[in-house]
UniProtKB/TrEMBL annotation:
UniProt KW keywords: Cell membrane, Membrane, Transmembrane, Transmembrane helix
Top-level taxon: Bacteria
Membrane topology: Multi-pass membrane protein
UniProt organism field: Luteibacter rhizovicinus
Subcellular location: Cell membrane
Record's GO cellular component terms: plasma membrane
InterPro entries: Poly_Biosynth_Transport (IPR050833), WzxE (IPR044550)
Record's protein name: PST family polysaccharide transporter
CDD domains in alphabetical order: MATE_like_10
């Protein structure tokens, strides 16, 4: 499986997820306007946070070690039994915590206690979401991109139908509820698809504590948790700051532009995750590693430049189609955001070397430093130039992150 074929299948699955996400955004924009889109961002941040914590943050670890151990059935069986045990223990712990603090979370994130039951539903749903993430990570580790695309397409179709039905009935609450239940609904597709795969074994559903494998998971999950938890937490802090400074309507404009970026970049980040993480994890030779990185820049970077330019040229039409005419003020925010998107993808390609080679300390420190620097830049720039300062903060921070990753990869390659 090469990068072109992997990208084709990942594009199919990503396109389906993208359409599902845009349908939810459109429904929220219709029913609740810019303020509703701002709150949607807060709730999605909480979903991302809980999903990562509940599963123990080991999806990337599963991909890495399945790619490494797939030719060693004994070690693979030990690892997967420990991974499922680790994931479900973390799920129960975080689900209980979310249930306990559901009222406070509803007030803090959504400023409305009526959403308390929604957060309780999300807490209970973590069991299903954790199992789904485990299944998808195993399939990804075997680089079975066709099966993965099938699960994503069919699961997204179910999610769209559920979102339309619930939002017509319950409006904003229904759209948010559909985000939660839609994830669990993916199991209806994912479990049978995995069960019928040639590499599935019943032992992959066995739970077992294995000290050696749990230590591997814990070490690796520190990196994954830092990269997965810090962005939602920082974005929640940014939304709160922008809401206090400019109001929730302005947050809706910022969120709209950010969601457009997330939407088109999803194709590229998914391809990088599906192909490059297992590929880099199993690549040992310096020449092979350099070859894979050059190929990534050769195929992926021109695509992101073209997509960013297209979004900028069509920003007025994109904003009106995806949201509504009420979001016209968001069009002024696209420029620096799209420049930041290009640099972000250039940085991600290199940062996967740290993840694939388990450079735990360096990776975690870099995630913390650049999360903090982004937040500081947002505070400073929005105080001087207004809401667009948040977009400039995003771009400047990723330029610095790119330079850092170039230095790290050059040093690593020099040591091989």
């Amino acid at each position: 499986m090469n990068i072109v074929r992997a990208s084709f299948y990942s594009a199919l699955g990503t396109g389906a997820r993208l359409v599902a996400g845009l349908v939810v955004i459109k429904l929220v924009a219709w029913f609740a306007g810019p303020e509703g889109v701002g709150k949607l961002g807060q709730f999605m941040g909480l979903m991302s946070l809980l999903a990562v914590l509940a599963g123990g943050g080991i999806s990337a670890a599963i991909v890495k070690y399945v790619a490494e151990f797939r030719d060693d059935p004994a070690r693979l069986s030990r690892f997967l039994a420990a991974a499922l045990w680790y994931s479900l223990c973390a799920t129960c712990l975080m689900g209980c915590a979310a249930l306990l603090f559901s009222h406070r979370l509803a007030l803090w994130l959504l400023d409305d206690p009526r959403y308390e039951n929604l957060i309780r539903i999300l807490a209970v749903a973590q069991l299903g979401i954790a199992l789904l993430n485990y299944i998808i990570a195993v399939i990804n580790g075997f680089m079975d991109v066709r099966r993965l695309a099938f699960i994503q397409v069919l699961g997204s179709a179910f999610g769209i139908a559920l979102a339309i039905w619930l939002s017509r009935w319950l409006h904003l609450y229904g759209a948010l509820l559909a985000l939660v239940l839609g994830q669990v609904l993916w199991l209806v597709v994912g479990l049978p698809a995995w069960w019928r795969s040639p590499y599935f074994q019943r032992g992959m559903l066995r739970l077992r504590f294995d000290r050696e494998m749990v230590v591997r998971l814990a070490t690796f999950s520190v990196m994954t948790l830092s990269s997965a938890l810090l962005p939602p937490l920082v974005n929640i802090a940014v939304r709160d700051h922008l809401a206090q400074q400019f109001g929730w309507e302005q947050v809706g404009y910022w969120q709209a532009v950010s969601r457009v970026s997330d939407a088109y970049l999803l194709f590229l980040t998914t391809a990088i995750n599906i192909y490059y993480l297992p590929k880099l994890a199993s690549t040992k030779a310096r020449t092979s590693l350099v070859f894979e990185l050059r190929n990534a820049y050769r195929y992926i970077l021109p695509v992101v430049v073209v997509l960013a330019a297209a979004v900028y040229a069509l920003r007025g039409w994109v904003t009106e189609v995806l949201f509504s005419a009420d979001f016209a003020s968001a069009n002024a925010l696209y420029g620096p955001q799209l420049v930041g998107d290009v640099v972000k993808i250039a940085s991600f390609i290199l940062s996967y070397v740290m993840l694939a080679k388990a450079m735990t300390r360096l990776f975690v420190i870099s995630e913390c430093v650049f999360a903090a620097s982004y937040l500081v830049l947002v505070y400073v720039l929005t105080a001087h130039i207004g809401l667009i300062g948040a977009m400039y903060a995003f771009a400047i921070n990723y330029v610095a992150y790119f330079v850092f990753n170039v230095l790290v990869v050059r040093r690593y390659l020099g040591e091989l």
